[in-house]
Amino acid sequence: MVHLEPLKISGREVLPIVEGGKGVSVSNGVSCGAFAAAGCVGTFSGVNADTVDENGRAVPQVYHGRTRRERYEELVAYAIQGGISQAQIAHEMSGGRGRIHMNVLWEAAATSRILHGILEGAKGLIHGVTCGAGMPYRIAEIAAQYGIHYYPIISSARAFRALWKRSYHKYAGLLGGVVYEDPWLAGGHNGLSNSEDPGRPERPYERVRDVRRQMLDCGLNGTPIFMAGGVWCLREWADWIGNPELGPIAFQFGTRPVVTQESPISDEWKQRLLTLKEGDVFLNRFSPTGFYSSAVRNDFLNELAARNERQIAYTRDPVGEHVVPLAIGARNRIVYVTAADKLRADRWTEDGHSEAMKTPDSTLIFVSPATSQEIRSDQQACMGCLSACRFSNWAETDVGTTGRLADPRSFCIQKTLQSIAHGGNIDSNLMFAGHNAYRFASDPFYSNGFVPTVRQLVDRIVTGD
Question: Residue 54 sits in which domain range?
Answer without folding.
Answer: 7-280+437-462
